[in-house]
């Protein structure tokens, strides 16, 4: 098992009101806001946009599968590089550059690819968007979590800006889709990436963190040895964590990939696409509200129980969507995501920093969450995309429910309770201070 002496409770820097008084929280919150604006544009509207361009469910599933496979290949490398870079911004800047190219890509490169081959377009589009999204998000989350410890603020308090962005941009993009041109949403994504780049450039890193990082390893961050990596990947709790992310976090994304199409097929509304954008907006603003209290709640119940609760709500939402398809019910199922996402995000970060070696938190995050989730999306996107076309959405959702329940039960037997670790195995204040700046 990973050495408990290098873990930290990672409880963060106090209440949300205290955090909001600090400029550093607004800076890193802004990074989350504009990155997840790009994220939300794609994942809220890509199913509708590709469907409008003539892609069937299988082609859309292939895009998501290729995204996941590309991310799966990149994330181990990204984790190693980010732990080596520590608080340096090089890898984050590469993600920003790729995000700025979203508008030109979908305006000038993707249409000729679709004219040549829908399958070829799906493969190329999936590879490109992985650089921005499924692989890129791991860089953004790992860097900002590390920065939250270095700056001593609660990760969840900065992360709620991402939820606010999701609600805001969904409303704006829905209006642009209905009143301007569906293609305009991609240019909005590029604009958000450019603002993100400016905020990353001015983001501050504490001098103490820089000095400790230099003293610990020259200009680099943490050196990862084979023994350290082997200790991590053979840890029973880590294996359970990987299984849980493979079958729950991945299926959360797979479920949402084409839910907008299912929603539009059943709701009684004159403009279901725009109505869906309103529902998503409400959901994500509610998500931001839940994110305010999520760190406190997860600290109370423990990160493992937080992950189990996330999985239980996901089961309820997927099963409900299969069985009850009235307009009111579908809206309610979508709004449940406002509870799921904060629980998952905060619990993932706290479980990693409490249960495993915090000095390789980026590697643990990339492998345990990023790679496991990407592998799950790669495995599940194509068959479920095809299932939507063959057996229908409702029957596919029933199968999905069974998978989520099975992996949750298995993972729960493997993962240790982090509450005992947090209370008994946390380092002394002097050790916590050293770990805080080293990591």
From TrEMBL:
Keyword Transmembrane, does the record have it? yes
**Coiled coil (residue ranges):** none
Q: GO terms for molecular function, please? A: lactose binding; lactose:proton symporter activity
Mainly localized where?
Answer: membrane
**Does the entry feature the keyword Transmembrane, yes or no?**
yes
Q: Which GO terms describe its cellular component?
A: plasma membrane
Per the record, membrane topology reads: Multi-pass membrane protein
Which spans are transmembrane here? 25-48, 60-79, 91-110, 116-140, 160-178, 184-203, 238-255, 275-298, 307-325, 331-352, 364-388, 394-414
Q: Which domain of life is it from?
A: Bacteria
Q: Name one Pfam family in it.
A: LacY_symp
Where is the protein found, in the record's own terms?
A: Cell inner membrane
Q: Which keywords annotate this record?
A: Cell inner membrane, Cell membrane, Membrane, Transmembrane, Transmembrane helix, Transport
- What InterPro entries does the entry give? LacY/RafB_perm_fam, MFS_trans_sf
Q: What is this protein called?
A: MFS transporter, OHS family, lactose permease
């Amino acid at each position: 098992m990973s050495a408990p002496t290098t873990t930290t409770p990672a409880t963060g820097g106090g209440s949300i009101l205290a955090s909001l008084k600090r400029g550093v929280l607004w800076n890193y919150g802004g990074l989350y806001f504009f990155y997840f604006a790009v994220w939300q544009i794609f994942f809220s509207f890509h199913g509708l946009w590709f469907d409008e361009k003539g892609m069937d469910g299988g082609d859309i599933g292939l895009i998501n599968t290729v995204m996941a496979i590309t991310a799966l290949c990149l994330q181990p490398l990204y984790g190693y590089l980010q732990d080596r870079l520590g608080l340096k911004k090089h890898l984050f800047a590469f993600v920003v550059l790729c995000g700025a190219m979203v508008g030109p890509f979908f305006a000038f490169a993707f249409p000729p690819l679709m004219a040549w081959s829908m399958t070829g377009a799906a493969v190329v589009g999936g590879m490109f968007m992985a650089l921005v999204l499924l692989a890129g998000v791991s860089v953004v989350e790992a860097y900002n979590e590390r920065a939250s410890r270095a700056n001593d603020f609660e990760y969840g308090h900065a992360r709620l800006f991402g939820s606010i962005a999701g609600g805001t941009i969904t409303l704006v993009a829905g209006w642009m889709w209905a009143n301007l041109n569906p293609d305009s949403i991609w240019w909005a994504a590029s604009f958000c990436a450019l603002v993100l780049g400016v905020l990353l450039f001015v983001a501050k890193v504490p001098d103490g963190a820089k000095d400790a990082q230099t003293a610990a390893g020259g200009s680099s961050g943490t050196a990862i040895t084979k023994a350290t990596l082997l200790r991590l990947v053979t840890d029973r709790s880590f294996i359970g964590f990987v299984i849980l992310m493979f079958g729950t976090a991945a299926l959360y994304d797979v479920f949402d990939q084409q839910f907008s199409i299912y929603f539009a097929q059943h709701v009684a509304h004159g403009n279901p696409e725009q109505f869906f954008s309103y529902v998503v907006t409400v959901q994500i603003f509610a998500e931001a509200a839940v994110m305010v209290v999520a760190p406190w709640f997860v600290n109370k119940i423990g990160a493992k129980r937080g992950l189990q609760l996330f999985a239980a709500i996901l089961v309820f939402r997927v099963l409900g969507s299969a069985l009850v398809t009235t307009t009111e019910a579908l809206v309610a199922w979508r709004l449940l995501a406002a509870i799921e996402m904060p629980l998952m995000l905060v619990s993932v970060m706290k479980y990693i920093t409490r249960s495993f070696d915090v000095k390789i938190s980026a590697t643990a995050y990339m492998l345990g969450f990023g790679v496991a989730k990407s592998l799950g999306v790669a495995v599940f996107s194509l068959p479920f995309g095809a299932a939507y076309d063959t057996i229908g959405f409702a029957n596919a959702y029933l199968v999905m429910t069974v998978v989520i329940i099975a992996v949750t039960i298995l993972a729960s037997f493997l993962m240790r309770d982090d509450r005992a670790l947090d209370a008994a195995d946390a380092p002394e204040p002097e050790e916590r201070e050293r770990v805080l700046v080293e990591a």
